Amino acid sequence: MGYRVAVVGATGNVGREMLQTLAERNFPVDEVVALASQRSAGGEVSFGEGEVLKVQSLDQFNFKGIDIVLSSAGAKVSADFAPRAGAAGAVVIDNTSYFRMDPDVPLVVPEVNPQAIAGYKKKNIIANPNCSTIQMVVALKPLHEVAPIKRVVVATYQSVSGAGKDAMDELFNQTRGIYMNAPLDRTKFTKQIAFNCIPHIDVFMDDGYTKEEWKMSVETRKILDPKIKVTATCVRVPVFVSHGEAVNVEFEKPLSADEARAILKAAPGVGVVDHRVDEGYVTQVEAAGEDKVYVSRIRDDATIDNGLSFWVVADNLRKGAALNAVQIAEKLASDYLSGKAAA
């Protein structure tokens, strides 16, 4: 027997990717329910080869009998429905920021801290980290196990899909408008995104950092190690899918680029493409549609003791969201809910 799974936000970029990923990875389901807002109810979304699901209204849905919920419908929506779903017996794997720093909610990247899933029983909620945090900690974890990390300085180059479908449309329409000498509409971003970079993701905080930058710092400490210091600059770039990150790491003891390269090659979920020649690295376009976190440009940093720099890129809709959530569901099902499916 399989599980009854609900996907909340099923009509959005990440929700559709969750449905596709569930099907691709043959997650054991008896039933999949597509949920979205009332205005999307009655529409249709695809699941697997040829199966079409009718979208139901989240507001009116009764979660009794649902085993697992994969959610990506916004923080306010999650704040409202996730406790209701959890109280009905479902385990919610939430992709929004709302529960991430709740001490009673595990924040999980399966390649990094799968043991944290055990804490789901406190609220029946598991949080999926921020997309930019996920790909960074997947690369940092195997290095941290060999040489403890003291400090991380990261600059992100984040695609517009991280801001939703409307943001992707804005990039497309602005790009077309530039070539057609037409007025550029700006609704999703604070400045023109076509042929431009915007060093501003999420709201500004009192210390001058944005909330996206704060997320990378606090989430890394919760997932990986509370002693690690992280400073981030998060930038939106005119790319449709996949986030890139330039990462600089200071370790407590020496770790050479060659040693790091060998460690990362053996790490789960990591692909190393690091050739010091033209095209010997992975870019965001090439990572789109891929499940791995790719690491390139690994090199020693001679400006500090025990320093390394490298480039990390991953598909933010897959490993940065949908795939990570499904991987959590797989681990949850195999290690904690297996008796439930067999009952």
Mean pLDDT: 96
- The residue ranges in which pLDDT falls below 50 over 5 or more consecutive positions are none
β-strand percent reads 15-25%
Number of helices, where a helix is a run of at least 4 consecutive DSSP H or I residues? 9
The CATH top-level class label of the largest domain: Alpha Beta
Task: State the shape.
Answer: globular
Total number of distinct structural domains: 2
CATH architecture of the largest domain: 2-Layer Sandwich
Order of helices and strands: EHEEEEEHEEHEHHEEHEHEEHH
Tell me the CATH topology of the largest domain.
Answer: Dihydrodipicolinate Reductase, domain 2
Helix content: 25-40%
Main sheet summary:
6 strands, parallel
Strand arrangement, major sheet: 5-2-1-6-7-8
Straight-line N-to-C gap: 8 Å
Q: Based on DSSP secondary structure assignment, what is the total number of beta strands? A: 14
The secondary-structure class comes to: alpha/beta
Specify the CATH homologous superfamily of the largest domain: Dihydrodipicolinate Reductase, domain 2
Radius of gyration, in angstroms, nearest whole number: 20 Å
